[in-house]
Structures are given as structure tokens and as C-alpha cells.
Amino acid sequence: MEDGREEKEKGVEESLLESAREKGGFRTLPFIIGNEALEKMATFGLSPNMTLYLINEYHMRMTTAANVLFMWSAATNFMPLVGAVVADSYLGRFHTIGFGSIVCLMGIIILWSTAVIPQASPPPCDQSSNVCISATTFQFLYLCLSFGLISIGAGGIRSSSLAFGADQLEKNGFHKSPGVKQSYFGWYYASYTLSVLVALTCVVYIQENLGWGVGFAVPGVLMLVAVTSFFFASPFYVRFKSSSSLITGFFQVAVASFRNRHLKFSDSMSDVYHCKNGSGRVIPSEKLRFLNKACVVRDVENQLTTDGRAANSWRLCTVERVEELKALLRVVPIWSSGMIMSINLSQSTFPVLQAVSMDRHITSSFEIPAASFGMFVVVAVILWVVLYDRMFLPLASHIKGRPVRVSTRVRMGIGIFLSFLAMLVSATVEAIRRYVATKDDGKVNHPQSVVAMSALWLVPQNFLTGFAEASNAIAQNEFYFSELPRSMSSIASTLLGIGMCLANILASSIMNTVDYFSQQGGDESWISSNINKGHYDYYYLVLAGLSMANMLYFLGCSAAFGPSRDDGKPLEEEDEL
């Protein structure tokens, strides 16, 4: 009797110890998602007011400041691609996130030093003579160093956090259940937008009221907390080993298929294809068939080693690697439509200048900081996620009598259309603001003088932009994770950021082109540093025209893509390639 009780107690103790030793699960998500949320809270707390910081403290022209910020944003959105390659092929996701967190902290500290060390930035303008001294080469490079480190650090964090969080949920059937996947992406994005909301309100308010020194110190403290909390939970993370370089493998497939371009296919059952060891016999798909030539074995003795590996990976690749490249190429057209939409989302410089010239008072003693109007975009994102996930889907499922979900491509299309509407509203509001400003001759030459128009007119365009971003961006992430093999999960999580990177570069080119042509003949540029003399409303109409063309392009790409894995069908677990 006692022996039985002792064995039972021992079994309970072993069960508890085994449970304590288990890694992953939902308990690790607060540290992973929290790390990225704090990073975004820090970096997004820096960017809104950066336009005013560069113009007022570094004495830059509006177009120069906008170009600097476009390039910084492009670098920040491009570095996750580098981070994804490093994570998937060399360091693994945990070490990539950890490295990125530390580097990002260093960048914020350097940026903070530009506000507190007089020699690190240009001296203030001489108010009596209105003469401003531009930054020296050293001061400008020192500023760019801080931007570069922040971009590198953000790339390490953002490239792997989404996929690293998904790794922790493998035991919960993440790849089997569309519901778990959709809910994870939705709430992950909601946590990110909540952190941005805090950045655009609290951090921006501190910068405007307590100065740049304190305002830049707060993001540094937030980033320090992020680094500490992430490493604190390190014993509990599930960590998958990195594999061979995907990017190198893609180049190998392209080179091998080109070298074998004269190879003639025989009957599909008689061709011998090179497969990954232990995967059994796998036949490549018929889509993008010319790439299949990279994995056809013509001479077993010369092309394969004794252990079944390719003797030269630049002449013979595995079926799995060929299929990975095919999957990536298939999503590129739809991905490019999201890139065009991101041009509209990157227009953060101009709304700040608009808000500066409008009445921002909520009460007689409190006014919203000009850089905080971006918070309405974030509020709209959160509202969209909550209403869609907690109201629309349950209500639609109740009415239909079965589970209902809207496909990713439908939601992407809705986002692109809402983005088009946002640009039309932006153009209309700016036309009204400019008309009110030009009626008073005394305010035409003073762009920072407040016109008799409430800044709350900017709220509708921000809400439309937020709804567009929530609908399109969340759907893009789901689409990439569904269509790409599990081995490419880090790259899947960075495709949205890469699109935003190219969007920033295109946005800079579009702005410079409009600036150049609009001032031909001695006219004032549409994108003048004096917002009252420029025509930002015309610039918004140009973006609206591009958005309409992008809508038609997306519909064509979606039709050409054909059926996807989430078009109303249950997702089945995908074999890892």
C-alpha cells in the first residue's frame, strides 16, 4: 500500500519536473513579442519627431530631411532580409534577435548623445541675423551611424521574432490550424501597434515638452528593458538549428538550371531527381518547369557522392530547394502590389508639417503634439483587428452556421482600395487647409503659423490609412506563411518589410521627381519647405493615381496566381522542405 503511494508520488514529481523542463509554449510569447514591442516603442518613438529634429537642430531643408528619413526607413525595412538569412543559415533566430537587441540599444545611445553633447550637432541658429550653420561632415556621419545601428538592430529583431514566436507554438498545432495561425498573426500585429501607439503619444509628448535629451533617453531605457527581458527567458525557448543558406541555394538553382538549359525532359516517371537525404523519392511540380532542370540527375556516378549528396551544388540541386525558389517566385507579383501600397504608408513627413500649421488644441490648455497624429493610424489598426477577429468573424459564422474566414487576397485587395481612398481624402483636406492659409496674406510666408482650421481634419485620412494597413499587412503575412515552405519562415516574415524598404526608395524617387518637375519655369515646388506656398494636395493626387493603377495591377496578379492554400479550405500540415 505504502509502496504504491510512494510510486504514485514519485510519478507526480517526475511529471511536474518534466512539465517544468518543457520548453516553448505560450509562456514564452510575452518575452519574444514583448521584446519586439519595446523595440518598436523605442524606434517609433524616435521617428515621428525626427523631421522636426533634422529641420530645427540640423538645419536641413524639408526635402533633404525627407530623403534622409526615407533612406533610414528603407534601411530599417531592408535589414530584416539580412537578418533572416543570418538567422536561417548561420546564427539561428535566438542569437539573431539577441544580437539585434544589443546593437539597437547602442544606436539609440549614440542618437541620444547628439542631443546632449554640443559638439555632436550644429550650433543653434543666430536669431538676430537668422543665420544657421549646417552640420559638419563628422556630425552628419555620426548621426548616420546612429541611424545605421538602429536599422541593423531592428533588422535582427524584426526578421526573426514572428517566426521565433511561431516556433514556440509547434506543439499547439500552429501549422495545422488556420484559426491558431490567424489569431496569432492578428494579436501579434495588435501588440505591435499598441506599442507604436504608446510611442506616438507618451514618447512624442515627452520629446515635445521635456526636450530632445530626455525625449531620446526614454527610448534608450525602453530598449534596455527589452534586452534584459528577452535574455531573462532564454532557458525556456525552443531553438531550432539553422540550416544551409537559402539565398545561396536559390542562386545555385538559377545557375544549375541555366547550365542544364539544353537538357531534354523525358517521361516524368523515368527522370531521376536529386532529393534531400532521407526524404524518399520526390518529383518536382510542373509549375515553372524550366527550374526542374536544376535537380535532374544525368550521371549518378559523377554528380553524386557516395553518401548521396551533390558533388557540385552549382550543377545539381535538390528538388526541395527548387520548390522553395518556385514558391518564392510565385508570390513576387502579389508581393509587389503590397510594395506599391506601402508608398502611401511611408508618407509620414508631410502630415507632421500639416499638423504644425493647424489648430491642435483639444482644450484651451492642452494640444496634441504634431507628431502624435500618427496615433490615429495605430488606433485604427487595433480597432480593425479587434472588430474583425472578435465581432465580424463570429457574427458571420453564426449567420452562416459554419466557420467563416475571409481569404488573404480579398483582405489585401480591401487594404489597397482603402489606401486609395486615404490619398483622396488627404488631397481634399490639404486643399482646404491651403485655401484657408492663403486667404490670410500674413500667413503665406510663415508655414508654422497656425491657420483657423482644426487639426482633427487629419483624423479621417489617418483612420483610412490604419484600416488599409491592418487589412493588407496582416493578410500579407498570413499569405506568405501559407504559401512558402516552413523552412522559409524567417524570409516569409521579412517579405512585408522588404516591400516597405523598396517602397521608401520609390517614395523618395517619386518625391524628388515631383519636386524637380513642379518647379520648372521658376514656379514654387509642390513640395516646398513652405507648406503654404507648395501644393501638397497635388502630390497626394499623384499618389492616389498610382494607388488606382496598383489596384488594377493587384487584381490581375491575383487572377494569374490561381487558387491558394487558404481560399476557404482547411490547411493541412505541410511537409518541411
From TrEMBL:
It is a multi-pass membrane protein. Its main location: membrane. It is found in: Membrane. GO terms for cellular component: membrane. SUPFAM superfamilies: MFS general substrate transporter. The chain crosses the membrane at residues 69-87, 99-120, 140-164, 185-206, 212-238, 366-388, 409-429, 491-511, 538-561. Keywords: Membrane, Transmembrane, Transmembrane helix. The keyword Transport does not apply. It comes from the Eukaryota. Belongs to the major facilitator superfamily. Phosphate:H(+) symporter (TC 2.A.1.9) family. This is Protein NRT1/ PTR FAMILY 1.2-like isoform X2. It comes from Salvia divinorum.
